[in-house]
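Re: [ENG-882] Designed sequences occasionally contain unexpected residues at chain ends

Forwarding the minimal case from QA. C-alpha cells:
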C-alpha cells in the first residue's frame, strides 16, 4: 500500500471512530432526561456509556498518534539540534512501542479468556451485558498504536536529521 492511500485509511478510520461520540451524547442525554422527568434512569445507561467512551478513547489513540495531537512535553526539543531532536523522537517512539507491546502481550490472553467464558459485566446491574467483545478493544487499539509508532520510528530512523515525519509531512 502506498503512503497516500495509507494516510487516507487512517484519516477515514479516525473520522469513523470520532462518530462514536454521537451515540454517547444521545445516550447521556436520554438517560439524563429520563432520570429527570420520570425519576427512572435506564438500567443500561452506565455500561453503555462506559463501552462507548472507552471505545472512543482507545480506538482514537492510534489516530491521535498519527496526527501528532497527543500530549507531549517538548520543552527540551526547542533547545536541541535537529540531530538530537531525531534521537529524542526515536527514544520516544521506542518508549511508546515498549508500553503498547507490553499491554498487547497482557491483554490478548485476557481478552481470549473472556471470550471463551463469555464474560459478563461485574457491575452487578440488572442489565449485566456480555463484555468479552469489549475486552478486545484494548489489544486492537494497542496493535493500531504500535503499528503507527513503528511507522513513525522507521520514518525517524531512515530520515535525514531535521526532516519531519507522520502527519506533519503530509
Amino acid at each position: 500500500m502506498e503512503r497516500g492511500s495509507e494516510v487516507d485509511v487512517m484519516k477515514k478510520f479516525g473520522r469513523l471512530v470520532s462518530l462514536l461520540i454521537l451515540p454517547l451524547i444521545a445516550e447521556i442525554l436520554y438517560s439524563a432526561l429520563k432520570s429527570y422527568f420520570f425519576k427512572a434512569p435506564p438500567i443500561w445507561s452506565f455500561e453503555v456509556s462506559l463501552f462507548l467512551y472507552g471505545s472512543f478513547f482507545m480506538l482514537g489513540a492510534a489516530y491521535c498518534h498519527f496526527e501528532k495531537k497527543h500530549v507531549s512535553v517538548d520543552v527540551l526539543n526547542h533547545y536541541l539540534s535537529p540531530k538530537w531532536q531525531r534521537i529524542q523522537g526515536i527514544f520516544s517512539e521506542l518508549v511508546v512501542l515498549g508500553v503498547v507491546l507490553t499491554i498487547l502481550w497482557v491483554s490478548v490472553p485476557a481478552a481470549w479468556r473472556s471470550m471463551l467464558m463469555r464474560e459478563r459485566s461485574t457491575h452487578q446491574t440488572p442489565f449485566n451485558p456480555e463484555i468479552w467483545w469489549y475486552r478486545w478493544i484494548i489489544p486492537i487499539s494497542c496493535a493500531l498504536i504500535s503499528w503507527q509508532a513503528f511507522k513513525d520510528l522507521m520514518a525517524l530512523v531512515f530520515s535525514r536529521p531535521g526532516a519531519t515525519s507522520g502527519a506533519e509531512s503530509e
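QA comment: On inspection the terminal residues look reasonable. Confidence is low (pLDDT under 50) at residues 165-170. Proposing we downgrade this to a documentation issue.
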